[in-house]
Design a protein that fits this description.
11 strands; globular; 53% strand; 0% helix; mainly beta
Length: 116
């Protein structure tokens, strides 16, 4: 069974940082590009970062580029997202995902709340 378990979310003050992690299981993690998505309250899902199977081909949503760092550790089947200088508009549920032969797979997500 394919599973994607995100963790690391929480309540953080504006200007703070968080490192999110997402561990995959039930599939050949190192064979797939991985992405981070988010859904802000009342809004649709937004792609924000992607990384190739071997850690190359990194891309970010232009509006958040410069504050995000995506990385992965294939030995741990884990993809990470470092978010710096957090802003209230970063409040969202953050998910990791990948495109399998069966379609886009997405985990349950982790909630990030940015508030003073």
């Amino acid at each position: 069974e394919v599973q994607l378990q995100a963790s690391g979310g929480g309540l953080v003050q504006p200007g703070g940082s968080l490192r999110l992690a997402c561990e995959g299981s039930g599939f050949a993690f190192g064979d797939y590009a991985m992405s981070w998505l988010r859904r802000a309250p009342g809004k649709g899902i937004e792609w924000i970062a992607g990384i190739g199977p071997n850690g190359g081909s990194i891309n970010y949503l232009e509006t958040v580029e410069g504050r995000l760092v995506i990385s992965r550790d294939n030995a741990k089947n884990t993809v990470y997202l470092q978010i710096n200088n957090l802003k209230p508009e970063d409040t969202a549920v953050y998910y990791c995902s990948f495109k399998s032969d069966a379609g886009v797979r997405r985990g349950q997500g982790t909630l990030v709340t940015v508030s003073s």
